[in-house]
């Protein structure tokens, strides 16, 4: 096909939006390892999980076999407020880089929460409402998940309690106020409001918090308050399932113009946007129908894939959650207060961990100063002010496009642009003032944290 026929933005109609989520686990020979009860070492039964999570979401979490799970109409209607999201052909970026590569990005920042997280937030809030619950609790790092969940909960008239990692709570007052606008209560974590929060504060006074701490607090409140359950914005199988809308739309858009992707790149925090983006493509790859070079990009400050260990670990610092088998830096790993807050999780989705372990994808880690250089370059060329998290994918997409310039290959590079960076301007300010540094853990730091992995 003549590339001139490909528009700057490939939009789909509402009718072309997926009617079912795609569950990539169905195509995996080696299924992701089950969540395990830390006390008994046995896989968590549905009944046990239902004390923490909503019933229907537990079903989705445990379902390794059903390929397509219908998206309820109510959720699809909500999606229509901001979906389908465009697949953008980065013509301006290609031209500026002088690359023969064709670069495409799926832009998920076109909603008030500013990221892809709303795709799962509305699904999780919907199932909580359907179960007759009063509300949900959660943690948020940089604030995108908390904002998305607040929006979803206010739409469905559910109460929303958010534990926000303390350094973000202080660095991002505007995020906090968006959440409060949508009716959520926001508590900086670790806090004095929970047993686990008090314990962490006693052990690490002055800590700036971590996603792991905030998860422990949110779970404690959910399991000790009647009518509440806990919801999580990444890592879990159910979240990757909901995020498959990103990949399904991307595939429909590419197919419409006969474009065959060569590379698919995404940033990886807990793995949900990348897992969602690659799902249908990975399904093809697992069935041997197509091949793709799939790349996870993580921050050098929190390098779970590239320097972590594939092992059972807690998802939280307080060690109250089930164990997940994943690439992990250890649940006691507290990353430096890096600016890509959404990528500061010590572990990684069990699905992606298994796929990575089995060689179906690769991973690279990048330094935040390089990430911000790429972010600024991209903003100036493509117009969108990207989130620092998303900019990890931008950087590697640009690097790959430059490799194509050397080899003369016209590869089709697709990456996930997960969100916008309007709430990250303090980080941009640090970068512009030359005050940004790269905080990379030493081998000793990581070994010390991995030494504390639970024995299973
Ligand atoms: C949360 C977030 C991420 C990382 O989370 P994943 O679960 O790995 O997708 C990436 N980009 C943005 C904008 C986010 O808000």
List keywords for this structure.
alpha/beta; seven-stranded mixed sheet; 18 helices; single chain; 2 domains; Rossmann fold; binds pyridoxal-5'-phosphate; 456 residues; four-stranded parallel sheet
Low-confidence stretches: none
Q: Give the overall average pLDDT.
A: 95
For the largest beta-sheet, the strand count, sense and barrel status come to: 7 strands, mixed
Q: How many helices in DSSP terms?
A: 18
Total domain units:
2
Q: What percentage of amino acids are in beta strands?
A: 15-25%
What is the radius of gyration?
Answer: 20 Å
What is the CATH C level class of the largest domain, in words? Alpha Beta
Total DSSP E strands: 15
**Judging by the overall fold, what is the CATH architecture of the largest domain?**
3-Layer(aba) Sandwich
Overall form: globular
The strands making up the biggest β-sheet line up spatially as: 1-4-5-15-10-11-14
- Going by helix content, strand content and strand pairing, the class is alpha/beta
Helix content: 40-55%
């Amino acid at each position: 096909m003549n590339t001139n026929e490909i528009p700057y933005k490939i939009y789909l109609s509402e009718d072309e939006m997926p009617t079912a989520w795609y569950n990539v686990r169905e195509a995996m020979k080696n299924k992701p390892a089950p969540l395990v009860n830390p006390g008994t070492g046995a896989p968590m039964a549905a009944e046990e999980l239902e004390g923490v999570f909503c019933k229907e979401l537990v079903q989705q979490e445990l379902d390794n076999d059903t390929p397509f799970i219908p998206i309820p109409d109510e959720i699809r209607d909500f999606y229509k407020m901001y979906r389908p999201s465009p697949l953008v052909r980065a013509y301006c970026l290609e031209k500026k880089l002088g690359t023969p590569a064709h670069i495409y990005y799926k832009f998920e920042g076109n909603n008030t929460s500013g990221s892809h997280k709303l795709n799962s937030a509305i699904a999780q809030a919907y199932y909580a409402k359907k179960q007759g619950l009063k509300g949900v609790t959660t943690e948020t790092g940089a604030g995108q998940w908390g904002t998305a969940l607040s929006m979803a909960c206010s739409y469905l008239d559910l109460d929303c309690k958010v534990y926000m990692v303390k350094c973000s709570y202080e660095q991002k007052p505007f995020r906090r106020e968006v959440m409060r606008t949508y009716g959520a209560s926001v508590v900086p974590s670790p806090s004095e409001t929970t047993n686990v929060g008090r314990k962490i504060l006693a052990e690490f006074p002055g800590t700036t918090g971590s996603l792991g701490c905030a998860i422990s607090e949110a779970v404690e409140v959910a399991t000790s308050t009647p009518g509440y359950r806990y919801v999580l914005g990444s890592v879990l199988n159910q979240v990757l399932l909901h995020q498959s809308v990103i990949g399904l739309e991307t595939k429909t858009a590419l197919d419409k113009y006969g474009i065959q992707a060569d590379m698919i790149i995404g940033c990886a925090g807990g793995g949900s946007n990348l897992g969602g983006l690659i799902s249908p493509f990975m399904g093809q790859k697992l069935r041997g129908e197509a091949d793709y070079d799939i790349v996870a990009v993580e921050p050098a400050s929190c390098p779970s894939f590239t320097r972590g260990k594939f092992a059972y670990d807690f998802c939280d610092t307080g060690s109250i959650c089930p164990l997940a088998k994943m690439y992990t830096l250890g649940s006691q790993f507290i990353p430096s207060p890096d600016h890509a807050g959404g990528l500061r999780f010590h572990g990684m989705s069990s699905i992606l961990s298994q796929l990575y372990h089995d060689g179906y994808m690769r991973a690279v880690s990048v330094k935040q100063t390089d990430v911000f250089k790429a972010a600024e370059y991209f903003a100036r060329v493509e117009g969108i002010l990207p989130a620092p998290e998303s900019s990890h994918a931008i950087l590697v997409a640009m690097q790959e496009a430059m490799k194509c310039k050397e080899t003369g290959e016209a590869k089709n590079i697709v990456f996930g642009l997960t969100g916008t960076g309007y709430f990250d301007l303090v980080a941009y300010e640090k970068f512009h003032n030359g005050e940004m540094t790269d905080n990379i853990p030493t081998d000793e730091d990581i070994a010390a944290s991995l030494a504390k992995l639970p024995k299973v």
